Amino acid sequence: MKKFSTIALVLAFAFPAIAATQAYAQDAQASPARLAGKCSFLPDAPDKHVVVRGDTLWGISGKFLANPWCWPQVWGMNRDEIRNPHWIYPGQIVYFDRVNGRLRLGQVVGGNGEASGVTKLSPQLRTQGLGVDAIPAIPSNLIEPFLSQPLIVEENELLNAPRIVATQEGRVVLAKNDKAYVRGDLKGGTSFQVFRPGAALKDPETKKIIGYEAVFLGTVKLDRAAKGSDSVDSFIVVNAKEEMTVGDRLVPIPPTPILNYMPHPPDQTVAGRVVAVYGGVGQGGQNNIISINRGANSGLNLGTVLELSRFGETVPDPTDGKKPIKLPDEKYGNLFIFRVFNNIAYGLVMQVTNTVQVGDIVASPE
């Protein structure tokens, strides 16, 4: 699994207080009978699974549960456990306690594959390394680039940002190690990301513009500061993901994110629509990134899980011929929210049985 030096992504089995709402904690302590409805086990669930490198918690849970995002509940986490990070590491064994309807954790010892005993989920915390060897919740490499990039900007947000005004030797396109000349207030910064305003994102329901998707071009670092108000700052291109040129804007590189979060249903009912599939394509599939027209203002936060559905068609009634029939909306997958803005959120598409299209429904899990 890829290790990150620039992004301390801790997207493992972590349970922070910010997500440990009272309602969720109560669900986590609910009886197996109560959990059976929305967090049922698969009829062919295995008795155990030995954790190996390359596993994800979503994938492991999918071997046992109809809804993999339910795993924190079937572990039977209490409020104190939810508040503190817990990790699962390669070599441990996940057991299905069929009698109590729970998942439990054991530790492999020796070479015979036997466990040292089955205990309630309480792996020791590793205080060093932020659990870098722990099993991640979802394929973290898929969302790494999106964690430190703004993605969404307001209409006038980049107008006053420092901008590239010239290039070394008049080059049209800048590449790695090229020099760029910048004018604008750096506010003491030395490392910047370079962006270009992108396509406007329209709410599929209201048709109003709710944000602009900024195009990430690369990163630059200050080489020589301007000597006067009429001078320019000299920058070196550290990396160029897309073509970078005169007129592009600089945004300070944000602090290294350390994200601890778990999958959970939203705290309030959410109903929204798919705004766009990242990259400007018309449709997407599993492991694609999509944006939706709901965000922090609708109660979404990191780790929120939503259902993806397609609107049911309206078809004529062949037995009547007069009144058309509205077919039911069809659920086809799940969405794992990992980046939240005020009115827009980005999610990783999980477990789909159909393509994701702009305008599709996103809603709280039933």
TrEMBL record:
Residues 1-19 form the signal peptide. This is LysM domain-containing protein. Gene3D superfamilies: LysM domain. InterPro entries: Bact_Kbp, LysM, LysM_dom_sf. PROSITE patterns: LYSM. It comes from the Bacteria. Keywords: Signal. SUPFAM superfamilies: LysM domain. The keyword NAD does not apply. Residues 47-96 form the LysM domain. CDD domains: LysM (cd00118).
